[in-house]
Amino acid sequence: MDLGLKGKTVIVTASSTGIGKAIADGFAAEGANVAICSRSKQKLIDAAYDIKSKFGTEIFWGVCDLNSKKDIESFYSEVVSNFGKIEILVNNCGGPVPGYFSELSEEDWDNAYKQVLLSVTRFIHLVLPDMINNQWGRIINITSVAVKQPVHNLVLSNSFRAAVTGLAKTLSTELANKNITVNNVAPGYTLTHRLYELAVNRAKTSGKSHEEILTEMAKDVPMNRLGSPEEIAAVAVFLASKQASYITGTTIQVDGGSIKSIF
């Protein structure tokens, strides 16, 4: 199936590893112009080399701390200088620190707000003028099943990822008549470094090993396994396609059937 993405320019944030890297792979495989960023220069170099070796595609990369407005604006400017207009934006980020409400400081809340919600609004503000001018655009936010069902011990993620969902729904109605779609992908338990860290964190208070915690997570999924980053990426890439042009304002959970609610 031709997804109509060849030659389109896409920014994928927090994309040197994990789900973000898998999404960058997916767009590169479709012939898109891909720009990736993260805080680690070496991981970006490794990711760009890996993508080029697999798809023969030159990847633009830039160091960018999503908590920094200056970094975001600088990265965006560099991508525009290299590729021109941005047609697709995939907002991805690592999860904020775990913890119960009583354990978290105001600084923790401020950092999580900047990382999860404010980075999304900052990137959207930058790419939107060109999308509106071109009467075409795709904005895809990678959130979490926490927007459907709060996750134990993740009050920061539960709060701010839900806020991203509210923002996306609002924008989807504002931008629909401009041929710009806004959607969210909500991963469930996916085998990434972030999930490993959560398992280690839970192990500290449960008396179990992190391997046992990961096994229990898999057992909670009706498919009896954890997801892969590539399975999340496939949905994100499709939502950017010409075939998905009538899908907007949605949150698609990719969770192996974990969430039991109808809506």
Give structural notes.
By secondary structure, this protein is α/β, with parallel strands linked by helices. It has 2 domains: 9-189 and 227-254, NAD(P)-binding Rossmann-like Domain (Rossmann fold, 3-Layer(aba) Sandwich), CATH 3.40.50; 191-226, no CATH class. It contains 8 helices and 7 strands, in the order βαβαβαβαβαβαααβ. The protein has a 7-stranded parallel β-sheet with strand order 3-2-1-4-5-6-7, sandwiched between helices. Helix 3 runs parallel beside helix 4 (106-134), helix 4 (106-134) runs parallel beside helix 5 and helix 6 crosses helix 7. The chain is globular and about 55 Å long. The chain starts with 8 loop residues before the first strand and ends in a 9-residue tail after the last strand.
